[in-house]
Amino acid sequence: MLIKLYHKIRRNIREDGLIVDSSPFLVNAMIRHIDFDRPIRVLEIGSGRGAFTSQLLQRLDRQSHLDICEIKHEYNPYIESLIQQHPDKSVRLHNCCVTTLLSQADHYDFVLSSLPLKNFEDSDSENAFLNQIIKGVQHSLVDNGTYLQYQYFRSNQKDIERVFGKAMDEVSFIPFNILPAFVYQIRKQAAALQSSVAMPVNTSHIA
Ligand SMILES: C[S@@+](CC[C@H](N)C(=O)[O-])C[C@H]1O[C@@H](n2cnc3c(N)ncnc32)[C@H](O)[C@@H]1O
Fold first, then answer.
1. What are the 10-residue block averages of pLDDT along the chain, 207 residues in total?
2. Does the predicted TM-score (pTM) go above 0.85?
3. Ligand 1 pocket test, candidate residues 18, 53, 113, most atoms within 8 A of CB
4. Which listed site, 29, 54, 69, 107, has its alpha carbon 20 to 30 Å from 94?
């Protein structure tokens, strides 16, 4: 029993970058940046069992749209059950790598990501996949659109700031989570203000 639990925890950390679902404290710290008072387009990346999805579905109005992206099919029953509880909401679950959703420019008002960015680091390719994801998020946001991301060790804060061409708008620390986490909030600058490092995304080699 203990050995089974140990293997499950190891697999969760290796594959998903987490030990247990995000806590309500972390969920609220991310969600509070979203303006639910107007029709918005939201992309949630890496829904897992739906810690964030549940709150998003409760708060979004009927004119808003939510795209949920989760690469693993095993979480579908959790997400589909949440979607069924909100038949009046405009929402779609995409079972794919998120890069396929990031090619459309100026589309989302908010991108909320639980992606384990640190797991995407790869010195052999000079972090090609990591950079592709961050550039894709930036590309898919409307001007002034907001990227929300949590991380346990601020490992990729600088990578995000480099692509967005600016410092984080806010970084908050949430102690009540396993593990304690930092929440990044960064808004996309209008095109005219962007530095030359923010280049268009290339999704051509992703399946
Ligand atoms: C750290 S877990 C977050 C789960 C949940 N949102 C939470 O915070 O409790 C990260 C999730 O991202 C998913 N994921 C990893 N790489 C992905 C990719 N390239 N595209 C879409 N989802 C991905 C994993 O399958 C996993 O469910």
1. 59 66 98 98 98 98 98 97 98 97 97 97 96 98 98 97 98 97 96 57 39
2. yes
3. 18
4. 29
